[in-house]
């Protein structure tokens, strides 16, 4: 019953967003996000703890302002995806500004496919949708939501511009086939991992358990790794940024997978430091500060639900 109610609520919000202007949608997102800020004390506390550890030299008032802005952004993420996915492909592209297009075209020209990496930063879902229209299909590595009806809805949304979704079971083999066909594979690298392929890297000078799948795929296939980020712009627009490809370590270098993963994580950290309000600090990214926080429900599906088994 609860899952069905969640699904119906999301569909209702989606229908409500369709006729609204971009400014109205963003205003609704702010209201929703700040409502979560006031009622969700547990995730608010986690966000405050994470920011205090990441930015110890900032004043408490500055960190609190970031937390509020981050919750507002979380509201924007929820409702703007519903609005964006209701638009025609032509209208989607009209709302997008591009930076680094030449880097993507050069990466694809090598014929080995392209690996794209980012985190729960900015508007990552919109970036994948727009990428499918501008550069061709991308396979998105993901984990299923706990609510199967919402997961079906999200998967349908992710695939509406030609992209596909690859779940972690068997992801290495399928991703290698996609890359061999010269196509793109995208993944998020900022979730705490429980699976056997997890490795620890430094994120804001703290150990963070991170997927090694990206680095292992890159080292095995020679596919370039391009970080991407989607920033909000006025008027409901988005700036889609493709960074320079990550320079891989020598394949015979000890700890090559860890070093490659660290280099990718460093680029994500650079963007989070520039725009801290656009990253979801309420996520339990680190598990080294507050054991009580481990009892708080996570923001994302657990990595232990679908382990990588084909390394």
Count of individual domains? 1
Taking Cα atoms only, what radius of gyration do you get, to the nearest Å? Answer: 19 Å
Please report the total strand number as a whole number.
9
Structural class: alpha/beta
Strand content: 15-25%
State mean pLDDT (0 to 100 scale).
92
Shape verdict: globular
Spatial strand arrangement across the major sheet:
1-9-8-2-5-3-4
Number of helices: 11
Distance between the termini: 38 Å
Q: Helical content, roughly?
A: 40-55%
- Assembly of the depicted chains: single chain
SSE arrangement:
Elements: H1 2-17, H2 22-39, H3 41-54, H4 60-84, H5 89-94, E1 96-99, H6 101-109, E2 114-118, H7 124-134, E3 138-142, H8 148-158, E4 164-167, H9 171-180, E5 184-188, E6 198-202, E7 207-211, H10 213-221, E8 225-233, E9 237-242, H11 256-274
Helix pairs in contact: 1-4, 2-4, 3-4, 10-11
Keywords:
alpha/beta; seven-stranded mixed beta sheet; disordered C terminus; 11 helices; 311 residues
Task: Explain what the structure shows.
The protein has 311 residues and is α/β, with parallel strands linked by helices. Helix content is 48%, strand content 15%. It is built from eleven helices and nine strands. The protein has helices spanning 2-17, 22-39, 41-54, 60-84, 89-94, 101-109, 124-134, 148-158, 171-180, 213-221, 256-274, and strands at residues 96-99, 114-118, 138-142, 164-167, 184-188, 198-202, 207-211, 225-233, 237-242. Strands 1-9-8-2-5-3-4 form a seven-stranded mixed beta sheet, with helices on both faces. α2 packs across α4 (60-84), α3 crosses α4 and α10 packs across α11 (256-274). The longest helix has 25 residues, at 60-84. It starts with a helix and ends in a 37-residue tail after the last helix. The model is unreliable at 302-311 (pLDDT under 50).
């Amino acid at each position: 019953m609860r899952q069905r109610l969640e699904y119906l609520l999301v569909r209702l919000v989606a229908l409500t967003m369709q006729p609204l202007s971009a400014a109205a949608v963003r205003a609704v997102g702010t209201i929703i996000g700040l409502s979560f800020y006031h009622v969700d004390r547990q995730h608010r506390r986690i966000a405050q703890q994470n920011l205090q550890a990441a930015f110890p030299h900032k004043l408490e008032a500055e960190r609190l302002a970031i937390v509020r802005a981050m919750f507002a952004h979380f509201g924007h993420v929820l409702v703007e995806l519903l609005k964006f996915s209701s638009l025609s492909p032509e209208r989607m592209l009209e709302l997008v500004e591009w930076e680094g297009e030449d880097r993507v075209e050069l990466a694809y020209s090598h014929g080995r496919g392209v690996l794209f990496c980012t985190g729960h930063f900015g508007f990552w879902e919109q970036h994948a949708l727009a990428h499918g229209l501008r550069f061709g299909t991308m396979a998105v590595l993901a984990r299923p939501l706990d609510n199967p009806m919402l997961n079906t809805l999200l998967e349908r949304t992710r695939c509406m511009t030609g992209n596909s979704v690859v779940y972690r079971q068997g992801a290495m083999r399928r991703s290698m086939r996609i890359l061999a066909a010269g196509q793109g594979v995208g993944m998020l690298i900022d979730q705490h991992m429980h699976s056997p392929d997890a490795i620890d890297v430094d994120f804001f000078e703290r150990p963070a358990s991170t997927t090694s799948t990206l680095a292992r795929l890159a080292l095995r296939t020679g596919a370039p790794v391009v970080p991407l980020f989607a920033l909000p712009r006025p008027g409901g627009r988005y700036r889609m940024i493709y960074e320079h490809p990550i320079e891989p370590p020598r394949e015979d270098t000890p700890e090559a997978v860890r070093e490659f993963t660290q280099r990718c994580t460093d680029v994500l950290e650079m963007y989070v430091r520039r725009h801290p309000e656009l990253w979801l600090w309420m996520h339990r990214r680190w598990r080294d500060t507050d054991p009580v926080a481990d009892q708080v429900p996570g923001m994302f599906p657990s990595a232990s639900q679908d382990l990588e088994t084909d390394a």
